From TrEMBL:
InterPro entries: Pept_tRNA_hydro, Pept_tRNA_hydro_CS, Pept_tRNA_hydro_sf. Its main location: cytoplasm. It is an enzyme of class 3 (hydrolase). Coiled coil: none annotated. This is Peptidyl-tRNA hydrolase. The lineage of its organism: Bacteria, Bacillati, Actinomycetota, Actinomycetes, Micrococcales. The record marks D104 as: Stabilizes the basic form of H active site to accept a proton. It holds the Pfam family Pept_tRNA_hydro. Keywords: Cytoplasm, Hydrolase, RNA-binding, tRNA-binding. GO terms for biological process: protein quality control for misfolded or incompletely synthesized proteins; rescue of stalled ribosome.
Length: 201
């Protein structure tokens, strides 16, 4: 497995957006930071564009400590996330295929996960900006389903709303599964993680 990974949770900065569906990636990063035993702080390598923490995540097959990981939350708005990702990848010399982006996904039902490397951005501006900054689509995406908006609600409005009361009851399980999926990508590889967590359909 790779010696070091960069895992980024997408979202918007500040308490106003903290509970939004669009910030589910950053919620997953909070769970990962708890597992690693690190906290988020301003990172000089991101040129002021991200909060980051470091440590080892998980356990490798055979019992050795998991790989070194940099967990990061961009402090810029979603649409300009790429600068932080690119700066940290360069600072730590992490190849794009060892970058994992955790983000909300409208085209996946709430509670489901899908994992892939490469492919399109599906209209997700945070991914589009990351692809532009890295110069490649070939990074890992952990896509956390938030479902489609009801009726004729604008998707842009929908993702900037908090989860519904019913969803909030299930959200801890979704965040835990997504963190497990990231951990398995790092310790056992994308195919193994897809086999366990990639929702069929």
């Amino acid at each position: 497995m790779a010696d070091r990974w960069l895992v980024v949770g997408l979202g918007n900065p500040g308490t106003r957006y903290a509970g939004n569906r669009h910030n589910v990636g950053q919620m997953v990063l909070d769970e990962l930071a708890r597992r690693v035993g690190t906290t988020f702080a301003a990172h000089k390598g991101s040129h002021g564009l991200a909060l980051a923490g470091e440590g080892r995540l998980g356990t490798l097959p055979g019992g050795a400590p998991g790989p070194r990981v940099v967990l990061a939350k961009p402090t810029s708005y979603m649409n300009t996330s790429g600068g932080a990702v690119s700066a940290l990848a360069k600072y730590y010399d992490v190849a794009p295929e060892n970058v994992v982006m955790v983000h909300d996904e409208l085209d996946i039902p709430f509670g489901d996960l899908k994992l892939k490397i490469g492919g399109g951005e599906g209209g997700h501006n945070g991914l589009r900006d990351t692809t532009k900054a890295l110069g490649t689509k070939d990074y890992v995406r952990v896509r956390v389903g938030v479902g489609r908006p009801p009726g004729r609600m604008d998707p842009a409005d929908y993702v900037l709303k908090d989860f519904s009361p019913a969803e909030k009851k299930e959200l801890p399980f979704l965040l835990d599964d997504a963190a497990d999926a990231v951990e398995m990508v790092l310790t056992q590889g994308l195919l193994a993680a897809q086999g366990k967590f990639h929702t069929k359909g």
